[in-house]
Design brief:
The structure holds 2 protein chains of 2 kinds.
Chain A lengths: L1 H10 L4 H20 L31 H37 L1 H16 L2 H12 L3 H28 L2 H8 L4 H37 L11 H8 L8 H26 L8 H16 L1
Helix pairs in contact in A: 2-3, 2-10, 3-4, 3-6, 3-8, 4-6, 5-6, 6-8, 8-9, 8-10, 9-10
Chain B lengths: L4 H32 L1 E6 L15 H7 L4 E3 L5 E3 L2 E7 L4 E6 L13 H9 L11 H4 L1 E8 L2 E6 L6 H4 L29 E6 L3 E6 L12 E6 L3 H9 L5 E3 L8 H9 L4 E14 L10 H8 L4 H8 L5 E2 L22 H10 L9 E2 L2 E2 L1 E6 L7 H14 L3 E6 L2 H7 L7 E5 L8 H8 L18 H9 L6 H15 L2 E13 L3 E2 L16 E2 L2
Parallel strand pairs in B: 1-10, 16-17, 16-18
Antiparallel strand pairs in B: 2-3, 4-5, 5-7, 6-7, 8-9, 9-10, 11-19, 12-18, 12-19, 13-19, 14-15, 20-21
Helix pairs in contact in B: 8-10, 13-14, 14-15
Chain lengths: ~290, ~525
């Protein structure tokens, strides 16, 4: 209970829009199959391009599938894909980063130069290249994005690991004769993970966007799995006759990405002193002026 | 010089006048262009190298300058062009053509037997052009008089006259438009349009007033490169272009055609000469070896409903390999109707049973459909409908959407269970498709094969290609019957050819092949 209260009080300090957007996104993602009013893949060609109605709250798409159900299930596709990519990317990135931070010296130099190479290439280009080689498909897409995403987390975890390793308690552990495995697994890894998870929150939106981008290009999620990027590209030919079909998935994607970005940013900024607002600044000036007079 | 407040204010006062002047000059220029009568046509990509003996540039642009001996008219009628008369003799082994007199190339060179043979020598009989019967079987020529030529062939050449109507390599370049090594320099032909300029954003042409035939009523043609179909639609509605459409030139999708129509833009829709075909690859998937499975798939989906939804009823559901306007298209087969129960029964008899996805010997009835949006717009949606409808009869269809390059490698390598194809279309039909897409021994590069059966199908195709003109109908019908009975392919739709033009364009008629630019008979209104 105490944990929950602490968590809630922490979230209340974050921007409300971000909390709502990310919260809804995760909720839909987790409970999607129980929330969809219709079978998201059930086609009815005679009911294509229907506008919103009681049966279909957000209308139907170009082959007569319920748009609301597809939007909801798309959230799940994104949440699962995003989680898989981040877990894969983080496990590789954190391992490499902490090993580099722990060992230092030429190991660090070597590993970090590899990371530099990874960082030098735009992640989407790396992902496209991997898909070009291995072909399209769900797991290839996850793999491609993970390969594109690990260098960032490796760089951050190395920085954190170097910081942790320089702290006095690690030195004491060494003097006391703690084994390298103990230092690494009990002290270094947990301390690093926390910082990297914050980074991951900020990055989740970018991953969701990358999944949508690849699907938009036809290289990511394959039909019939609903996915926002795919819904967008399928609806493009009908942009004029039924713009709703383009706007809705676009809006859903935008909200999710903005939510994650705001959240990540505010978590990071929560640790930095906030600049004073104009109103407070004005008050302070008035106070200071009063001092002068006195 | 320091800018004082006064000079600045003066400048401000002058600026609007300058702007006004400039914009009035621009609009005057635009008015002039329109008044003089420029036909502005959208093209999806730059015209490229227009050498008629190479396979690089855009066909329809080459058609503006280069003319054939005979033209492919509506429904495959052969019409005279640079040849006025022709005769096929010696059982089809000799072609005698009488050349049109008083014709000159755009550079003043006269069109005669010598110019014709100079062109033919650049391509005929060379291995690279073996896909053309006339080139493969060419044996020699004789210039009878300056306007009569005889071409000799080793064997009777099927589709001979059609081959001489192709855009490339059969059309004629001025012998003077090459350098001293014989390398192509400029696109100079006998046609009514002279190229003025060409760049990656546009090509412009002016009328050739010495043209032998009917002179176009307007003086310029401007081809604007607009790669994105949405920007073409916007340009058409804004009056910035006069004409767009065709399968290759500046394609218009069925949904876009409907939007244009409702915006008051005249749209012409015709059944074209290409067919959208669903191909099976039994070599990769054992299940497809069984004709009953193919038959079940063929009646497992609803062509009419798909046509209504995806093609806005503009595409006619297909029963035969070719639409009726193709020469030797054969007997019309009925369009397969969706029959879920019959399809299920067929699969049951074939040993595929179970609820949900059917199984046989512990193997699921699962097929992979390869689609490429770049090759065929809307093919992924088509795939999704097939996936859903075939799912109802117990077939699991997975869709693999690939980019253009992957399709070019996967389709010839036959890495698919099912795939969507276009037939080649006029003027290459029927033999372009029959030989190119069905004969196992013929290498057709990236196009791939619709169906392969060296033991049964190849002899039929070979028999048709070596049949005499009198037997061709029967020989091609034998192929169509075999394909139909074996359900070797599933014809889906006859692709509609959609053109749209600005209201000021009058007298527009769609071209008879996808390789011509339809400028003829057009007059430009105000």
């Amino acid at each position: 209970m105490k944990f929950l209260r602490e968590f809630l009080s922490y979230t209340s300090s974050l921007p409300r829009l971000a909390i709502w957007a990310v919260g809804t996104f995760l909720f839909l993602g987790i409970f999607a199959p129980w929330l969809t009013p219709h079978d998201p893949n059930a086609q009815n060609l005679l009911q294509a391009h229907l506008g919103p109605s009681f049966a279909h709250w957000l209308g139907t798409d170009h082959v007569g599938r319920d748009t609301l159900s597809r939007l909801i299930l798309s959230a799940r596709t994104s949440v699962v894909g995003m989680t898989l990519v981040l877990v894969l990317a983080l496990s590789v990135g954190v391992t490499i980063g902490t090993v580099a931070g722990y060992r230092r010296g030429w190991v660090e130099e070597g590993l970090m130069r590899i990371v530099d190479v990874g960082l030098a290439m735009p992640s989407l280009i790396v992902a496209l290249a991997v898909i070009g080689i291995f072909g399209t498909g769900y797991w290839n897409m996850i793999l491609a994005l993970a390969l594109a995403w690990w260098p960032g987390s490796a760089r951050i975890s190395r920085a954190v690991a170097v910081n942790v390793m320089n702290r006095p308690h690690i030195e004491s552990l060494r003097v006391l004769g703690a084994s390298p495995a103990r230092i690494y697994f009990h002290h270094l890894l947990p301390a690093t993970l926390g910082a990297v998870l914050v980074y991951a929150t900020a990055d989740a939106g970018a991953v969701a966007l990358a999944i949508a981008t690849l699907s938009f290009l036809g290289l990511g999620i394959q039909p019939p799995t609903p996915e926002w990027g795919q819904m967008l590209v399928d609806a493009l030919p009908y942009l004029e006759s039924s713009p709703r079909q383009v706007i809705l998935p676009g809006l859903a994607l935008t909200l999710a990405v903005i939510g994650f970005n705001l959240l990540g940013e505010s978590i990071a900024l929560n640790r930095v002193p906030t600049p004073l607002s104009r109103k407070i600044l004005r008050q302070r000036r008035i106070t200071a002026a009063a001092w002068k007079k006195a | 010089m320091t800018a004082s407040r006064r000079t600045f204010l003066k400048g401000l006062a002058v600026a609007p006048a300058l702007f006004g002047g400039l914009s009035s000059t621009i609009s005057a220029y635009a008015q002039k262009a329109k008044a003089h009568g420029d036909l502005i046509v959208a093209i999806a990509k730059p015209a490229g190298n227009l050498d008629p003996h190479k396979y690089i540039g855009l066909w329809a642009v080459q058609d503006l300058m280069f003319e054939p001996l005979m033209r492919y008219g509506k429904n495959g009628q052969i019409e005279p062009a640079l040849a006025t008369e022709w005769a096929v003799e010696d059982n089809g082994k000799l072609l005698r053509v009488k050349l049109r007199q008083n014709v000159t190339f755009q550079d003043g060179t006269s069109w005669d037997a010598e110019a014709m043979m100079w062109n033919l020598d650049r391509w005929i009989g060379k291995p690279a052009n073996n896909w053309m019967n006339s080139s493969r079987l060419y044996s020699g020529h004789r210039i009878v008089d300056p306007h009569t030529v005889e071409l000799q062939f080793k064997e009777p050449v099927l589709g001979l006259l059609y081959e001489f109507s192709y855009v490339r390599p059969s059309r004629f370049l001025s012998p003077k438009s090459v350098d001293k090594d014989g390398n192509y320099q400029a696109p100079v032909g006998t046609g009514p349009w002279i190229q003025e300029s060409a760049s990656n954003s546009e090509s412009t042409f002016k009328r050739f007033d010495g043209y032998w035939g009917d002179l176009p009523t307007f003086e310029h043609v401007e081809l604007k490169v607009l790669p994105d179909s949405r920007s073409r639609m916007a340009a058409l509605r804004a009056g910035e272009i006069d004409l767009a459409g065709g399968d290759y030139l500046a394609p218009i999708k069925a949904t876009e055609a409907k939007a244009l129509e409702s915006a008051g833009i005249p749209v012409t829709v015709e059944t074209g000469t290409t067919t959208i075909v669903l191909a099976y690859n039994p070599d990769r998937n054992e299940a497809l070896k069984d004709v009953r499975v193919r038959k079940a798939i063929n009646i497992g989906f609803d062509r009419a409903a798909i046509g209504q939804v995806l093609y806005q009823s503009l595409a006619e559901p297909a029963g035969s390999l070719f639409p009726a306007n193709v020469p030797h298209a054969g007997k019309r087969f009925d369009v397969a109707k969706r029959d879920v129960e019959a399809a299920k029964a067929l699969l049951e008899v074939a040993g595929w049973s179970g609820s949900g996805i059917r199984e046989k010997d512990g193997k699921k009835l699962s097929l992979e459909l390869v689609v490429s949006e770049e090759q065929m717009a809307g093919s992924r949606s088509l795939g999704e409908i097939l996936q859903s409808q075939l799912g109802e009869i117990g077939i699991e269809l997975t869709i693999r959407s690939v980019d253009h390059a992957s399709r070019h490698s996967d389709i010839p390598a036959r890495k698919y269970d099912m795939a969507l194809f276009y037939t080649l279309g006029a003027p290459y039909e029927p033999f372009g498709t029959l030989v190119g897409l069905f004969l196992s021994t013929f290498n057709n590069g990236v196009d791939g094969k619709l169906f392969l059966d060296p033991a049964n199908l190849d002899p039929l195709v070979l028999a048709a290609t070596s049949a005499s003109e009198a037997d061709v109908a029967g020989a091609t019908q034998a192929i169509y019957d075999w394909l139909y009975n074996e359900v070797a392919i599933s014809p889906l739709f006859y692709a509609p050819i959609i053109w749209a033009h600005a209201p000021r364009v009058q007298g527009f008629t769609p071209p008879s092949t996808e390789y011509d630019l339809p400028y003829k008979n057009i007059t430009l209104g105000a």
